[in-house]
Write a structure and sequence with these properties.
The protein has helices spanning 2-9, 13-30, 34-37, 44-54, 57-88, 114-183, 208-235, 248-258, 273-286. The protein has 287 residues and is mainly alpha-helical. It has one domain (2-247). The chain starts with a helix and ends with a helix. 18% of the residues are buried.
Length: 287
């Protein structure tokens, strides 16, 4: 039926349905009457529409676009993975071996040595680098999670387009049937539904392609999350390495053992009543 090709290539739904209705009136006059009154018989028009609805160029194109979208999203996911792995592999985020502890250098000097001061500055620089890398890692991870949502949106769009194509086919069948009912001499015998009149919609989600794309992105996300967890444990441990300064409780214990610090005893201060009395007493003794 060449007119079906014209129907599916037109962009005006009203014109499509009107042409289907005219074809129904024409077939009702020219085809055998039993073709339309037998509930177990599928009219040739319905057969053709079903074939086009299931093996149509429209859905082939929809699935082709979905496959291209999947490829593009996976490429972006792999790029974000590389960003994360590059940040996690930076050597300047790794802690240096602890050479000093509790405010003393290796020789037991209680004062902060030059080496210890350098170690403190190096540790401060390392922590700044860690924060910078962590920000980059978390940003890439957030973009990975967004790609998961983009893929789900692409699947929803695909399902919507497929449903629209099926709905379009069913509308054409309904218009064709209305034309048959207008022209058929035994219209009261036409069943409410012809065989194959209702077209089953494909399973939602794009089938195997949907599961494959979803699992690939999820696998990349799981991998980077595991590596991020290990990296955090290495560069930002819950119990940091030995402190470079004396803990407060050690300083307080030392102060308790030694007792309160006492300075040199001072005599009465000048200008006070006690000081004036003492000077007066000394003058009296001298006299």
């Amino acid at each position: 039926m060449a007119f079906l090709s014209r129907l599916f290539n037109r962009g005006d739904p009203l014109a499509e349905r009107e042409e289907a209705r005219r074809q129904g009136r024409k077939d009702a006059r020219s085809h055998p009457l039993g073709e339309f009154t037998d509930p177990d018989f599928q009219p040739a028009y319905v057969t053709e529409i079903r074939a086009r609805a299931r093996a149509r160029e429209q859905i082939t194109e929809v699935d082709r676009r979905l496959a291209a979208r999947r490829t593009a999203l996976l490429e972006r996911a792999l790029r974000e993975r590389e960003v994360i792995l590059r940040e996690l592999g930076r050597s300047d985020t790794r802690p240096q071996p602890a050479g000093y502890a509790n405010g003393h250098d290796a020789n037991g000097d209680e004062f902060i040595s030059i080496a210890e001061a350098r170690a403190r500055r190096a540790e401060a620089r390392r922590r700044a680098v860690v924060e910078e890398s962590n920000a980059g890692v978390q940003g890439a991870r957030a973009r990975l999670e967004h790609l998961t949502q983009e893929w789900e949106n692409a699947l929803a769009e695909r399902d919507h387009e497929v449903e629209a194509v099926h709905a379009r086919a069913e509308q054409l069948i309904a218009a064709y049937k209305s034309g048959v009912l207008q022209a058929h001499p035994r219209r009261e015998e036409i069943p409410s539904l012809w065989k194959g009149e209702v077209i089953a919609v494909d399973a939602p989600g794009g089938g195997a392609a949907a599961g494959s794309g979803r699992e690939e992105i999820a696998r990349i996300l799981r991998e980077v999350e595991q590596r991020i967890e290990v990296w955090h444990a290495e560069v930002m441990p819950a119990h940091p390495r030995a402190q470079l300064t004396a803990p407060e409780h050690e300083a307080s214990e030392q102060a308790t053992e030694d007792g309160p610090e006492r300075g040199p005893e001072k005599g009465p201060e000048k200008g006070t009543e006690e000081g004036d009395d003492a000077r007066a007493t000394r003058k009296a003794d001298d006299a």
